[in-house]
Amino acid sequence: PVDPTLLENVKALMAKWISWYSYLKMPEIHVPTLQESVPSQGRVASFLSGGIDSFSTLLHHETDSALEPIDDCLTVFGFDFALFQEEEFKAFYENLKNVPKHFQKEHILVKTNVRRTAWKAMDWGYLSHGAALGTIGLIFEKRFKSVLIGSTGGEKSRNPRGSHVETDHLMSTSQTSFTHDGAEYTRVQKTIKVFESDFLMKHLKVCYREKKEMNCSKCSKCLRTLATFDILNGLDKCK
Fold first, then answer.
1. Cα-Cα-Cα-Cα dihedral of 157, 16, 13, 61, to 10°?
2. What span, in angstroms and rounded, lies between the C-alpha atoms of 145 and 177?
3. In which band, very low, low, confident or very high, does the pLDDT at 135 lie, cut at 50, 70 and 90?
4. Interior CA angle at 175 toward 173 and 176, to 5°?
5. How far apart are CA 235 and CA 142, in angstroms?
6. Element (H, E) at 226
7. SS3 sequence, 1-67?
8. CA distance 210 to 205
9. Rounded distance, CA 61 to CA 53, Å?
10. CB atoms near residue 134 (< 10 Å)
11. Which of 7, 101, 128, 144 has the CA that lies 20 to 30 A from 47?
C-alpha cells in the first residue's frame, strides 16, 4: 500500500514530465492506499553536496529565524561520485564532514547503486536525479517531516531539469514534505551568501569534473563561481 498523497502527487509529477518530454508516456497505476500515515520524528533534513546550492540552503536556514532550522544533512555516495571512485569520495567526504559538525547537525551518509541500474540510461540532469533525491528522502520518511533540496534554476526558470521548482514538492507524502529550497535567490546571490562565510569557503566544492575534494577551476561551474569571487575581489578566499 502507498501513501495516498504521494500517489496523487506522482500522477501530477508524471504529467509535468510528459509536458516537458513528449517521448514519455503516462502509465496506469493500480495500487491500494494506506489508511493511516506513517508517524514522523519531525526532523528537518537538507541535502549537502558541498556546492553553492546546498551551502546556501544551510546558511539561510541557520540565519533566518523565519525558516525552520535544519536538523540533519544528507550526503549521497553514488550520485556525483561513481561507486568505484571510493578513494576519491573518501577524500571529498573527509573535507565535507566538517561542515555539519561545525553547524552542529547530524550527518547522514547514504550509499546507493542507483546509477548502476536502468536509471543510467535515463537523462540524469534533465529528468531522473530529482526523483533519485526524493527516493533518498523517503527512505527516512519515519524520521523527516521536511526535506530540503537546494534549488538549481531559480523560481523564474522554466528550463526542464530533474530537480525543479515545479516538481520537487510533488514527491511529498502526507507525512513528509519536499521543498525546492532557495528558488527565490539567483545563483549570484547564493554565491555571495556563501562567500561571506570564511568557514564554508574552505570547504566549497562546486566542480562536477574533478572527482576529488578539489575544484578543477576549468569547467563551467567552476568558472562561473570564480567569476563571482573575482567581482567580489576574493579569488584568494577560496582554498
1. 10
2. 6
3. very high
4. 65
5. 43
6. helix 220-231
7. CECHHHHHHHHHHHHHHHHHCCCCCCCCCCCCECCCCCCCCCEEEEECCCCHHHHHHHHHHHHCCCC
8. 9
9. 12
10. 26
11. 7
Q: E strands within 86-195? A: 106-111, 144-150, 177-181
48/236 Cα distance (integer angstroms)? 24
SS3 121: helix
Sign of CA dihedral 79, 84, 86, 89: negative
If we measure between CA atoms, which residue out of 200, 164, 237, 172 comes closest to residue 63?
200
Which helix H or strand E contains 148, and what residues bound it?
strand 144-150
> In the numeric block, which cell numbers belong to residue 101?
559538525
Query: Is pTM, for the whole model, over 0.90?
Result: yes
Question: Which secondary-structure segment (H or E) carries 181?
Answer: strand 177-181
Sheet order of strands, 177-181 included: 106-111, 72-77, 43-47, 144-150, 177-181
Place of cell 568557514: 199
C-alpha cell at 173: 507524502
